[in-house]
């Protein structure tokens, strides 16, 4: 019996038109273009503007492109996993809303919240559904409207995040391509260092919580940086060791785009040449669940069938992990 892997057979993304530059941020908070670039590598980020525009807008535009690109009938999709920390509503799941709006009438789905590691978590779950033989076509979405939870008076966070995301189509592969191995982690020690103080059941929204600006991302940057540098690099090294890969065997590293210094440290641990490290953080900033799909789209023409790609992420929680993906087309 042939082994079934779950392969990515198509990817598409969307970013809003509005570009928020470092120069514009200089007018909003006490920062400079040079300071932002030297510490993060970011030049600009995209922002979704307009009344009633939620993260579903980003997802739906990306999925429409994906279905057209792969010549897929919406009714063929059987499952939708939406990795996001900025859902349209607390409930129902934005996955359900997107499926309804796009005519995915034969799909069931749910939202998955694992901060910046959510896309890897979703990819792993979706792949297991394909591998089991119970599903033939699964959509995994990674998208966020981070501008909806960012305090543009907080220079520590507002310089980092942007809006955007994408989706991939998973299908069965018997040629040895697809998701080969994944190692995921989580550690609740990170809760205190990266979170939103209000809005959940512990501290429901109130006039007081809004006035105290507690519905925005809170981050202790130095602590998060320290954990991210160590853990993302360790996860990538573990995936390489488990699959007996040397640096020459890896075509590209697709790391979560949070900070250029974290990405560089991970690549160094893996022994990768700079040419194998894909980056677009300068264009989009940290789109949380959207970073890896955006990398796939921006550099898709570089990938060859059978290429070994290492995907890696680190996010609040803390959550982190790495995957080995053999490109399928």
Order of helices and strands: EEHHEHEHEHEHEEEHEHEHHHEE
Average pLDDT metric: 97
- State the helix count: 11
Bin the helical content.
Answer: 25-40%
CATH architecture of the largest domain: 3-Layer(aba) Sandwich
Query: What gross morphology would you assign?
Result: globular
**Text of the CATH class of the largest domain:** Alpha Beta
CATH superfamily of the largest domain: Thiolase/Chalcone synthase
Main sheet makeup: 5 strands, mixed
Strand order of the largest sheet: 1-7-6-4-5
According to CATH, what is the topology of the largest domain?
Answer: Peroxisomal Thiolase, Chain A, domain 1
Measured between the Cα atoms of the first and last residue, the distance is 23 Å
Strand content: 15-25%
Radius of gyration: 19 Å
Kindly name the structural category. Answer: alpha/beta
Number of domains: 2
DSSP strand tally: 13
Uncertain parts? none
């Amino acid at each position: 019996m042939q082994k079934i892997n779950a392969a990515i057979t198509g990817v598409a993304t969307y970013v809003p038109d509005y570009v928020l530059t470092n120069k514009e941020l200089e007018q909003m908070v006490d920062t400079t273009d040079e300071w932002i670039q030297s510490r993060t590598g970011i030049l600009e980020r995209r922002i979704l503007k307009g009344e009633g525009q939620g993260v579903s807008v980003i997802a739906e535009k990306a999925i429409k492109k994906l279905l057209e690109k792969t010549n897929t009938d919406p009714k063929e999709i059987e499952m939708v996993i939406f990795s996001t920390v900025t859902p349209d509503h607390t409930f129902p799941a934005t996955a359900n809303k997107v499926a309804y709006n796009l005519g995915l009438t034969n799909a069931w789905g749910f939202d998955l919240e694992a901060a910046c590691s959510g896309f890897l978590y979703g990819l792993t779950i979706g792949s297991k559904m394909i591998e089991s033989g119970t599903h033939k076509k699964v959509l995994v979405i990674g998208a966020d409207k981070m501008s909806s939870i960012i305090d543009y008076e907080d220079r520590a966070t507002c310089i980092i995040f942007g809006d955007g995301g994408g989706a991939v189509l998973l299908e069965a592969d018997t040629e040895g391509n697809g998701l080969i191995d994944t190692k995921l982690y989580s550690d609740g020690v990170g809760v205190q260092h990266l979170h939103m103080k209000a809005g959940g059941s512990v501290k429901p929204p109130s006039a007081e919580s809004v006035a105290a600006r507690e519905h925005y991302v809170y981050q202790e940057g130095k602590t998060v940086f320290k954990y991210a540098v160590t853990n993302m690099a360790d996860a990538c090294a573990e995936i390489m060791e488990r699959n007996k890969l040397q640096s020459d065997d890896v075509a590209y590293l697709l790391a979560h785009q949070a900070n250029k210094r974290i990405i560089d440290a991970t690549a160094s641990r893996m022994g990768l040449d700079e040419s194998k490290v894909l980056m677009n953080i300068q264009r989009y900033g940290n789109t949380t669940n959207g970073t890896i799909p955006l990398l796939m789209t921006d550099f898709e023409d570089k990938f060859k069938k059978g290429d070994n790609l290492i995907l890696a992420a680190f996010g609040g929680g803390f959550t982190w992990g790495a995957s080995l993906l053999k490109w399928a087309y």
